[in-house]
Design goal:
16% strand, alpha+beta, 132 residues
Length: 132
């Protein structure tokens, strides 16, 4: 389960921050690295924006739904160990076998996000690319 990160309003982020600080004191888990957006290639969830969010709008005016993310890396390294599959946490060459098993690099470690309008006939889609 993942939760929004950059896609929150400032008031939502302020509310989450207060809860996140308490959670981190109690558990050591960071909301921003351990509970919000899961990195890597995935269906659904929230985009793992590298830059500011860029949710496209359909011609009907509706904000499109996030469908697919394809990112350069499957996780961010030591900052996000929670997202490493349990069976791969035992060690080894984490960079080559888990973090970037395909050697895919989109821009400067960025991602491509595919969005779809689930209400319009023909399911129109848009893509967004961002990198650092």
């Amino acid at each position: 389960m993942e939760y929004p990160s950059y896609d929150m309003t400032q008031s939502q982020a302020d509310e989450v921050q207060a809860i996140a600080e308490e959670l981190e004191k109690e558990t050591g888990w960071s909301y921003w690295y351990d509970l919000s957006v899961a990195p890597g290639v995935k269906l659904g969830g929230y985009p793992g924006w590298t830059q500011d969010p860029q949710w496209p709008r359909c011609a009907c005016g509706r904000v499109m739904d996030h469908l697919i993310t394809v990112e350069s890396n499957e996780f961010d390294g030591e900052d996000s160990p929670r997202w490493i599959p349990v069976e791969d946490q035992a060690g080894g060459d984490v960079w080559n076998t888990v973090k970037n098993p395909t050697d895919l690099v989109l821009g400067d470690a960025g991602g491509v996000y595919v969005f779809v309008c689930s209400t319009c006939p023909g399911r129109p889609y848009e893509t967004v690319f961002d990198c650092s």
